[in-house]
Amino acid sequence: MAGPTDTAVDLSQALVAAPIPMGHWLVISPIVLCIGLGAILLMLRNRTEWQAAVAIPGLVLLVLIDAALLYRVVSDGAVTMVMGRWLPPFGIAFTVDIFGALMALTAAVVALAASFYSLGEITGSSRRYGFFPFLMLLLAGVSGAFLTGDVFNLYVWFEVLLISSFGLLILGSEPEQIDGALKYAVLNLIATTLFLVSVGYLYAVFGTLNMADIAVKVRAGDSNAPLMTLAGLFLLAFGMKAAAFPVNFWLPASYHTPRITVSALFAGLLTKVGIYALIRILVMLLPVERGGLGPLVTIIAIVTMLVGVMGALGANDIRRMLGYIVISGIGTMLAGVALGSVDGLSGTIFYALHSMVLMTALYLIAGQAAHLGGGFSLTVLGGIYRQNGWFAGLSLVLFFAISGLPPFSGFWPKVVLVKAAFAAGAWWLAAAILLVGFLTTIVFGRVFLLAYWRSAAASATAERMKWHAALPLLGLTLLVVGFGLFPEWLLRLTHAAALGLEQPTAYLQSVFPAAGGAQ
């Protein structure tokens, strides 16, 4: 039996020896905060009067943390935090660049707005059954997906947000909700299984799941494996998560069933996580394969846009109509992925941020319109303009924004995408974006004429909006107007984010500083 030796073991290549800078803790703070608040709220589930008082200040803190993280990343470049001091690729890394930080901050703002609106809708049993704990765990999953630097960890955070979204979807336990939840669960579980298969294949090929490590090995040509098959699997899995054609039918069958606050959260957050993951994997990790899939992604983008807007034209229920509009927006985002250029990706990221804010606001508008008009059906609604002119004006601004009309936030990303499409010679893609914008204008023009301008079947008295509905709607609308009137700073950020995806030197240097981010 061999005895002990005095040989020194050098762990400097495997462990972080230096103290971790305080600024690096910002990387994991959003996740820790959300999980911690979720646990506290779960313990207080029987004290329904305390739920919002704990959750809303927590969400304000989350917004401030994400804003500080974005400032840090913009000022100093990508930041990496490793778990247990184990260096990549041995340990799990959280790596944040401008793209991830922008998405995380927007998600926190959207959740804060929805939490205010929930004060008038989520009461009694819905709070007791866990709305606020599920909300915080959903944000933990969303934040984790945006901030992680490990592909398997990305899968884990998808699971966290998926489980919490199931709980939110069935709050109320109505038959329609159970039916919608079943369709949502089956299709998302299939997508999750495909994602897990893709992760296993990725590990078999590269022997690592750290995103930066994979990017280095792909650029060095270290693998002769059929990476196009792997890219196709990721496209299918994330396309299903994002509700892209032809795997989009689960969304309009489920998003109209839960409480309107939950629908707003789902429309603002969940499909955007799928788009984020698709961009991160295909553009940063598998750029050559993304180029090979470009023609296919172009077709998917155009058909998704058209299917979404045609479904919206035929819908009579405002909630179903908005579900189709979510799908149409996913097609617009996929257009930038298909192009793959810095301008195309910049337009996609801008549109994703715009859509997160705007789709949340539109679902909240639909909830308030139903409150004023007595239902979600366009055959029932009418006379909203006479009941509340201020609310009608707010709605009109958001309708213009989703149609891509100036001077609101939807105009600029479409300009960038159309310009990028013409620059790449893809005039058919530019034409599809413009056509869908025109058809979307018709969709919301019809809504305004029938639900707002047309006289109500019965005389209705003027009604004021409650503060917990007015405050989030006003805040989100101001963001939509602000993004439209002053787009320069956001255009600079989204361009920098897109450049960081196409040329991820700073990202790689953050994870492997000793290697100099060699590509």
Strand content: under 5%
Largest sheet descriptor:
2 strands, antiparallel
Q: Which outline best applies? A: globular
Number of strands: 2
Q: Helix- and strand-based class?
A: mainly alpha
In round numbers, the mean pLDDT is: 87
Order of helices and strands: HHEEHHHHHHHHHHHHHHHHHH
The value of Rg in angstroms is 23 Å
- Residue share in helix: over 70%
Q: Low-confidence spans: pLDDT under 50, at least 5 residues?
A: none
The CA-CA distance between the termini, in Å, is 46 Å
Helix tally? 20
Q: Spatial order of the strands in the main sheet?
A: 1-2
Please explain how this structure is put together:
Helix 3 (98-121) packs antiparallel against helix 5 (131-147) and helix 12 packs parallel to helix 16 (411-423). A two-stranded antiparallel ribbon has the order 1-2. It contains 20 helices and two strands. Helix content is 72%, strand content 2%. The chain is mainly alpha-helical and 519 residues long. It is globular and about 75 Å long. The chain has helices at residues 29-43, 48-76, 98-121, 125-128, 131-147, 151-169, 175-206, 211-220, 227-242, 260-285, 287-314, 318-339, 342-373, 384-387, 389-402, 411-423, 427-453, 467-485, 488-502, 505-511; strands at 79-82, 93-96. The model has no long low-confidence stretch (mean pLDDT 87).
